[in-house]
Amino acid sequence: MAINAIRFAAQQERMNLVAKFVGKGYKVLELGTGDGSITQRLMRHNKVTTADAVSLADHKFDFNDFPYPFASQSFDVIVLAEVLEHLLRPDKVLLECKRILKDDGRLILTMPNIASIKNLIAILFLGKVTYVAEPNATSHYGHVCDYWYKRAKEVVKGAGFKIKRYETTCSYLVLCT
Fold this sequence. Notes:
It contains 5 helices and 7 strands, in the order αβαβββαβααββ. It has helices at residues 2-22, 37-43, 90-100, 117-126, 149-158; strands spanning 27-31, 47-52, 59-60, 75-81, 101-112, 165-168, 172-176. The protein has a 7-stranded mixed sheet with strand order 3-2-1-4-5-7-6.
């Protein structure tokens, strides 16, 4: 029960940071909608378009199929919350985001931080991070790659973005270009 409360608090903190970094009055694309909680929060003050491969989003497509069905420079803000770690080619996805983002637009990314204190303690005492499946499992929640600040910065920079702000929570990295 306490673990669920901690996870809920961490998710709320991440959602608050995303909303703060997005701001109000923008045309936003959320790539990967998850349970829709970030979408609902952003829709209070922004015009939000959603895209996902598996949910009831406005646009449904595989993020590995390019180009995306949006005109160049269509959005003020693009949000990828808990998406990058699931992608086989995050570099190509970020390049596509660069194309559809306005020149003065912002890219906001969140991802589990493998180097967080919480995860380092879990590795020390449990031998694994808490979101990773058991050793015999074939997947750890579909994560293809783990991130820490330096690795995330390299991937983002490789697509031509510059991180202007970032924050860490007990479990997550939240980056804003």
